[in-house]
Amino acid sequence: MTETAYDIAIIGGGVNGCGIARDAAGRGLSVYLCDKGDIGGATSSWSTKLFHGGLRYLEYYEFRLVREALIERETLIKAMPHISWPMRFVLPHHSGLRPRWLLRLGLFIYDNLGGRKILPATRTVDLAKGPLGAPLKPFLRSGFEYSDGWVQDSRLVVLNARDAERRGATIRPRTAAIRAERLDGLWHLHTEDAETGETETVHAKALVNAGGPWVAEILNTKIGLNTPDSVRLVRGSHIITEKLYDHDRAYIFQTSDGRVVFAIPFEEDFTLIGTTDRDHKASADTVGIEDDERDYLLALASEYFEKPVTAEDIVWTYSGVRPLYDDGASSATAATREYVLKVEDRGGEPPLLNVFGGKITTYRRLAEAAMVKLAPYFPEAKDAWTDGAAMPGGDFEHDGQPRLIRELMAAYSFLDERWARRLIRTYGTEARAVLGEARIVDDLGRHFGFNLTEAEVRWLMANEYAREASDVVWRRTKLGLRLSADEIGALDAFMREARASRAAAAE
Asked: What integer is the mean pLDDT of 204-227?
């Protein structure tokens, strides 16, 4: 058993935990973060993958949340232009649902509430003519087109963790928090490595509980504090189909139950449809789409698309559990997306910060707010700094992807445009580090399927905490949509052998 002292220890390696770790490390504080699974391996990997203000939240008068999120869209797109970019959304007018004037008013507010600078404004579109209306049913003759942002959510989390580590943080994926207690003026956090069983005791001046769906469980069973605060687990499920249309716009469809569902171009050859809003009564460790959720999404998509979308079109599904602060709302849809931060210090004892709720678009602002809560305990901490700070690989202009793709193809003549585009949209300016000194394709080593090579896998293992095939094909990339089960199995075997070789060399 080893013992180490830090300023802040964080339980939870999702977007909130990694965002707080990055912010705190950049302020000069020593940080330890652990997660029982992969970095970003739970809720933060299974979102609808949007940097958006949340147009429908205006109907619930969540103006502060929407404004904060709208401002953040552009801040985040500029900081990580390799994994996020502007996206245009088409909102068809459905005469049986919200009236046209209400949609236009909501979009006017949406355009002007957040200080939009780089994103284009809303415009009216004629769906009876042109490609935007071509995939839709003929009764949908008009609508609006507005802006939001797209993000590769699981990569966002990993990049936050990497940047935190680059600034001095200790990041421990697959390390479970067993127990936390206050002793001798410090937090004692006891952890166990999920693979080796090795235990560690971490001493810290402050403890952050960013456990997401497990935040209340951690508070009550790992820390031993009973609290009236709780989270409402809301499941969001998505289906991925073969590509349903040829243009690059997303659709936002209204539903008769007052919700909205998106249909979004996904990984070039697919369409993402989601999400549902369903209270999740089971364990957060067991999450998956249910048959009625699948049928709901298929029926909703078929209500708008001219060609019916059927179960045979589905190539993959995923579900995540949103840990919303339980505000007593009557439905999962109406539950607040606001984050709630609460400090418990028992009259001068080492502080515990509990993080409830939040949404991926406002994670950076949540991290800043968390540091404000912790500021009285760390007067030596530097000022806020993350606004405008580029993520690893994101040190280029927000519209610079095409240039980087051309330059990468020029530097590595064996790349075609599709391969180069995937690398830039995954690694940005670090794509050259992934490819290294390769001059011909064989220099990249073994090929595992599609354009995934040994060089890329080894880079992910060395730099992005990847330990098994699922980390690579479903979180660091989405190449699980391209690779067969046998290819994924071969990749997993290779990664096990590589880990074993590394462990043997270290002994």
From this structure: 89
Single-letter code of the amino acid located at 362: T
Three-class DSSP labels, 4-20: EEEEEEEECCCHHHHHH
Residues 162-201: pLDDT tens digits? Answer: 999 999 999 999 999 999 999 999 999 999 999 899 999 9
**Nearest CA-CA partner of 499 in 465, 473, 470:** 465
Tokens of 365: 């602002």
Decide if 365 contacts 341 (C-beta within 8 A): no
Which of 50, 340, 8 minimizes the C-alpha distance to 164?
8
Please say whether the beta carbons of 19 and 367 come within 8 A.
Answer: yes
How far is the C-alpha of 236 from the C-alpha of 278, rounded, in Å?
7
Q: What is the pLDDT of residue 72?
A: 94
Cα separation, 395 vs 433, whole angstroms: 14
162 CB neighbour count, 10 Å cutoff: 22
pLDDT tens, residue by residue, 53-112: 888 788 777 888 889 999 999 999 999 999 999 999 999 999 888 888 989 998 998 999
How far apart are the C-alpha atoms of 488 and 433, rounded to whole Å? 24
Tell me what pLDDT residue 1 has. Answer: 46
Look up the pTM and report it: 0.95
The pLDDT-based confidence of 202 (bands split at 50, 70, 90) is very high
**Closest among 281, 252, 276, 280 to 264, alpha carbons compared:** 252
* Mean of per-residue pLDDT scores for the chain: 93
CB 303 within 8 A of CB 255: no
The amino acid that residue 64 corresponds to is R
Burial status of residue 56 (CB atoms within 10 A of its CB: 0-12, 13-18, 19 or more)? middle
What would the pLDDT profile of 186-197 be if each residue is shown by its tens digit?
999 999 999 899
Percentage with pLDDT > 70 across the chain: 96
Q: In whole angstroms, how far apart are CA 199 and each of 1, 175, 191, 202, 465?
A: 6, 9, 6, 10, 19
Could you give the CA distance from residue 13 to residue 42 in angstroms, rounded to a whole number?
Answer: 9
Q: Which two tokens mark 176?
A: 């479970």
Residues 6+ apart with CB under 8 A from 263: 244, 250, 251, 253, 271, 272, 273, 301, 304, 305
Nearest CA to 214 among 176, 187, 164?
176
Token readout for 142 is 């008009």
Q: How many CB atoms lie within 10 A of CB 311?
A: 11
Task: Enter the tokens of residue 337.
Answer: 């997306």
Q: Is the dihedral angle over the CA atoms 267, 47, 131, 83 positive or is it negative?
A: negative
Neighbours of 384 (CB within 10 A): 14
The 3-state secondary structure of 217-228, one letter per residue: HHHHHHCCCCCC
d(Cα 353, Cα 343) in Å, to the nearest integer?
Answer: 4
The answer to whether 121 and 114 are in contact (CB under 8 A) is no
**C-beta atoms surrounding 414 within 10 Å:** 14
Distance between start and end Cα atoms, the chain: 18
